[in-house]
Amino acid sequence: MKLKTLTPVHIGDGEEIIPWEYAVENKHIKIYTPEKIVSQLREKFYGDKLRNLLLELRNEVRDYGFSKSLGEFLRERNINIEEIYRVETRVPLKNRTDYKGIKSFIKSRKDVYIPGSEVKGALRTIFIFGVVYEELKRKNAYLYNSLKKIIENALEESYQNPRKRRDAWKEADKKISALIFRDNKDAKYDIFKAVHVSDSESKDPSECLYVDAVKLIGSSRQFFELHELLKEGTEFSISIRIDENVKRALKKVSENPYVDYLTLENLKKFSREFYRFLYDVESSFFSRKGLEVNGLEKVKEALGNGDFILRIGKHQGFLSLTIMLMFYINKKLENFYRKVYRAVVQSTGREVNKTRKLTSENKPLGWVILK
Predict the structure, then answer these.
(1) Radius of gyration (Cα) for the chain, nearest Å?
(2) pLDDT band at residue 358, thresholds of 50, 70 and 90?
(3) CB neighbour burial string for 149-159, b if at least 16 within 10 angstroms, e if fewer
(4) Which of 63, 119, 224, 318 is buried deepest, with most CB atoms within 10 A?
(5) Nearest to 367 by CA among 282, 310, 321
């Protein structure tokens, strides 16, 4: 299969590229590693000259912190060293106050890839939504009552002990997953053991990444973080396969009533249902804020074409990651959703779920299609 980005995507590796690991050159950022810097300085200089340069570099890192970058240090001394890779930046970084850490995109060695676990996690979310959505339409009283009990217990625990409300909701999420994926049996019976998603092919970061700022919309709090982002239209080869032998074995030993839902056709169908609702919520939010968002029209077009849509990576938003979308879109459960949201999110204003993240070009993050 091919995975194609509709909007910018950030899948982080938990690391930051600090200003002393990059240089700004016109509209590009050149990325280095400490090992590469020291190695190339050793190739160009030796003896006292090398020792003094390394001491100067150490002292400037100590004295200037993030208010200066490696690029400045090299330009001041007319030193040229080869970067690991370079990427375009969509935000100008001209002054010392602009220098920030850049959230780095996950890589294998130096090449960019999409982890199979990231895609599989998104498939699990839409599968839970799809099964619950279909079963509740069929008035499955057992599932309804089971979900209701899990969520009400978590809600009660959240209000009784506010300090542990996140733990309560993590536990509720685990119980809902256990209910759907393994019918509350041992984890070895999880029906997604039949789903195999490979890591994608790797790509040169210079070809597919750029740097942009991610900002928070709908909040008085200032939020401005630099990220390495996948460009829109980037394609990766990836393998997604459902092992029918494993499915049959799991159905036989676990008797999970939801095994038969696990087909690629159903996953595609569930993705359309889930993301159609999510698109409506997102576009309505931005419309109320009077914002013109670039990229949602591609999502709308893909939904209209019946494409297999997913949302992956960081800054997807609360509703993309949980089945709480089901309660949000149900008017009868709107007050219940508000209680749940306030219990889950530690600090919120009068309006629930009132913020979104966009790039500096007003593009949402994380939307991809599988082809």
Answers:
(1) 24
(2) very high
(3) ebbeebbebbe
(4) 119
(5) 310
Q: What are the CA-CA distances from residue 362 to residues 74, 214, 313, 317, 357 (Å)?
A: 34, 9, 17, 15, 9
Residues 265 and 350 in one domain: yes
In a domain, 327, yes or no: yes
Residue 329 lies in a domain: yes
Q: Which residue range(s) make up the domain with 90?
A: 19-100
pTM, rounded to two decimals: 0.88
Positive or negative torsion for Cα 248, 271, 368, 301: positive
> Same domain, yes or no, for 64 and 173?
no
Encode pLDDT of 154-203 as tens digits. 878 877 887 777 787 788 888 889 999 998 899 899 999 999 999 999 99
Residue 37 included in any domain: yes
Task: Characterise 109 by phi-psi region: left (phi > 0), alpha (psi -120 to 50), beta (else).
Answer: left
**pLDDT at position 327, please?**
62
Tokens 């009784």 locate to 160
255 and 349 housed in the same domain:
yes
Phi and psi torsions of 96, nearest 5°: -60, -30
Position 340 pLDDT exceeds 70: no
Q: What crossing angle do the helices spanning 165-182 and 116-137 adopt, rounded to 10°?
A: 80
> Do residues 263 and 184 both lie within one domain?
yes
Q: Of 14-23, 63-72, 154-163, which one has max mean pLDDT? A: 14-23
Task: For residues 260 and 363, state if they share a domain.
Answer: yes
316 pLDDT tier (thresholds 50, 70, 90): confident
Question: Which of the residue ranges 81-85, 340-344, 361-365 would you say has the lowest mean pLDDT?
Answer: 340-344
How many C-alpha atoms does 345 have within 13 Å on its Cβ side? Answer: 19
